[in-house]
Write a structure and sequence with these properties.
Chain A: InterPro entries: HATPase_C_sf, HATPase_dom, His_kinase_dom, HisK_dim/P_dom, HisK_dim/P_sf, TCS_sensor_his_kinase. With 409 residues, chain A is of the alpha+beta class. Chain A has 8 helices and 11 strands. Chain A has a 5-stranded mixed sheet with strand order 6-8-9-11-10. Chain A has a 4-stranded antiparallel sheet with strand order 1-4-3-2. The chains are: A alpha+beta (409), B alpha/beta (225).
């Protein structure tokens, strides 16, 4: 829930409660006032009437004094004046003694009109309060929105911020102290992470490059060691293992440098790369490996896709995907390549369980016992996809492992 | 043939010199830019191996000096940096080839041989081994008078073994040489056996005595006097 809505919610709750309590209270109070008013008038009428009645001579029966006033002769009664509501009337009953005879005087006043008035007033009141409440809510909302605007702008920029952006994070200045303090803190944080990232990147790059000279020395000495004579089979076998390890180090190094270079954006030159001929060309290169594993290759070229990208990187991307499909395949397995509607799908048979989705595209998360897989291939694939906005996904539907790259939507 | 190795890592330059010595190359070492500039001014070399990062400057300045003096020495850059920019810069300054560290000495040897062929013999020197004739310019192979029809890979393999004759060439080096950029994706060297088997069969059919020996699954060696 938005902070904005949260505060407004409390205001709203309070206002509704107030409204619900206020209206009955208001009604009751208003009615009391009206009745008191009516009563006062009834008493005034009586006070005015009594002296006149005292001097009046009754000839035949009770006199007619008006619509609202009745006077009737009753037995001796010493009851006091009373005021009560009957039906829609307010009734004042009083006992008078005129010419030694007791009369009951009743004066009534309609309160129906007053009821209507009260209802009208209440309705008006409710309407007014409701309008006021809605108005307040709206004003509060728009005001909050305006006040929180810098916060949302900061949030938006933070969302779009990537630590590998070349430019430091720049936030819009705010006149609100809290927000400007927040912005400063966030900017500093972003700058620190950026510097840490750059330092780490430079370290990876330098380390990879510095490693190459000792690797070259190692490989050179190994090559010389192979030339020594006599050489026993045991020695040869040791040297072969060393040579294989050295080869792996060299490859790892190459992969790491490639990754760093992709991250550094060092492949700026782009061209139109057609996917199909690139893949056909690569398959031609991998022919020996395909034949060794006796793989059945099924190619399904529905629609050619051409992307704007760096040709070298595209070759690396497709090469890694195809090599994976070959390397992790089983003897006499299948590879299905399909290109349609901007989507490239590479499917292969292999292990009978799915690879771990969450780790598959991460560095060194190799999930095979195959020694020549170095765990960088798929990360390189993902990095290149990220670079060009392709979407790469992995799915396992027995017996096929499927890699799907959406190149064009 | 005289080779100048401009490289500050003596362990590496000594290895290179030791490997190349078997091919009757005379190697001189220059551990820094100053020595290198002195040497190229005084002597002519068939091939110069040049490391770009030297303790007292950039190796590319040596290239510039060569160009300024109108020297025709072949140059192969051996560098730890392998970005396209580095390559282009080196090649634009007149280097013949660019080899990234780490490399196999057999690969370096093959590249040196190619540079020297181009520079010194304008490409027409035919490699000979016990009646086997390989013409690098025409890309043809003959055993005495019988032409041998080889695939591209078989031809490359033969040329590689010929330029590294009498030395053990590891299967890793052969795999890297044959598969070029695709190397690194596979660790399976079985495909070399297939190529090797076909190559040997074709050469035997043409009447060549097989001189290529497998050394304990480590690599191959072409033994020719």
């Amino acid at each position: 829930m938005k902070l904005l809505n949260k505060t407004v919610q409390y205001y709203f709750l309070l206002s509704v409660i107030l409204l619900l309590v206020a209206i009955p209270v208001f009604y009751v109070v208003l009615k009391k006032i009206v009745i008191a008013n009516v009563d006062a008038r009834l008493v005034a009428t009586k006070t005015q009437l009594v002296p006149r009645l005292q001097v009046m001579q009754f000839r035949n029966g009770e006199p007619v004094l008006g619509n609202d006033i009745t006077l009737e002769k009753v037995g001796p009664n010493a009851a006091r004046d009373s005021l009560y509501t009957a039906d829609t009337y307010r009734l004042l009953t009083s006992h008078l003694v005129i010419n030694r005879e007791t009369y009951r005087l009743q004066i009534k006043s309609s309160i129906a009109n007053h009821e209507r008035l009260i209802t009208s007033i209440i309705i008006l009141q409710v309407l007014l309060l409701s309008f006021l409440l809605t108005g307040l809510l709206l004003v509060n909302r728009s005001l909050s929105r305006k006040v929180w605007d810098p916060f949302y702008k900061t949030l938006q920029k933070l969302r779009a911020y990537k630590v590998d952006d070349a430019a430091p994070l720049q936030l819009a200045p705010s006149s609100v102290n809290e927000f400007s303090a927040l912005n400063t803190a966030v900017e500093q944080l972003a700058e620190r992470s950026r510097q840490a990232y750059v330092a780490q990147k430079e370290f990876a790059e330098n380390a990879s490059h510095e490693m190459r000279t000792p690797l070259a020395i190692f490989q050179g000495k190994l090559d010389l060691l192979m030339q020594t004579d006599p050489l026993s089979e045991e020695q040869a076998s040791l040297i072969t293992d060393l040579a294989t390890a050295s080869q792996r180090m060299a490859r790892l190094n190459k992969g790491l440098i490639l990754l760093t270079r992709i991250q550094n954006g060092q492949f700026p030159e782009t061209g139109q790369v057609a996917i199909r001929p690139t893949i056909v060309n690569l398959l031609e290169q991998y022919q020996p490996q395909l034949q060794l594993k006796e793989l059945t290759l099924q190619q399904d070229w529905v629609e050619e896709v051409t992307v704007t990208a760096n040709p070298t990187l595209m070759e690396v991307l497709l090469g890694n995907l195809l090599a994976n499909a070959i390397r992790h395949n089983v003897q006499r397995g299948n590879i299905i390549i399909r290109l349609a509607a901007g989507v490239l799908t590479v499917q292969n048979t292999g292990r009978t369980e799915a690879l771990r989705q969450d780790r598959i595209f991460h560095r060194f998360s190799k999930q095979s016992t195959d020694a020549d897989s170095m765990g960088l291939g798929l990360e390189i694939v993902r990095k290149i996809c990220d670079l060009y906005g392709f979407e790469v996904t992995y799915r396992f539907e027995a017996p096929l492992h499927t890699f799907r790259i959406v190149m064009k939507h | 043939m005289k080779i100048l190795i401009i490289e500050d890592e003596s362990a590496l330059s000594k290895s290179i010199a030791a490997y190349l010595a078997a091919e009757n190359y005379t190697c001189e070492l220059a551990p820094d830019k100053k020595t290198a500039l002195d040497k190229i001014e005084t002597f002519d070399y068939d091939c110069i191996l040049l490391d770009i990062s030297l303790p007292d400057g950039n190796g590319l300045q040596v290239l510039e000096a060569l160009k300024a003096n109108h020297k025709t020495d072949g140059v192969i850059i051996i560098s730890a940096r392998d970005s396209i920019d580095d390559r282009i810069q080196g090649l634009q300054l007149g280097a013949d080839d660019y080899l990234t560290k780490p490399f196999h000495l057999s690969e370096l040897s093959a590249r040196i041989a190619a540079v020297i062929r181009r520079r010194r013999f304008a490409g027409n020197n035919v490699l000979e081994a016990e009646g086997l004739l390989l013409d690098p310019q025409a890309r043809t192979v003959k055993v005495r008078q019988t032409p041998v029809d080889l695939t591209k890979k078989e031809y490359d393999l033969l040329l590689y073994l010929l330029t590294n004759r009498n030395r053990v060439v590891s299967k890793q080096a052969i795999a890297e040489h044959l598969s070029g950029d695709g190397e690194g994706l596979f660790d399976n060297y079985d495909f070399i056996y297939a190529h090797m088997k076909n190559l040997k069969k074709k050469l035997l059919q043409a009447g060549w005595t097989d001189r290529v020996k497998a050394i304990y699954g480590m690599g191959y060696k072409m033994e020719v006097p």
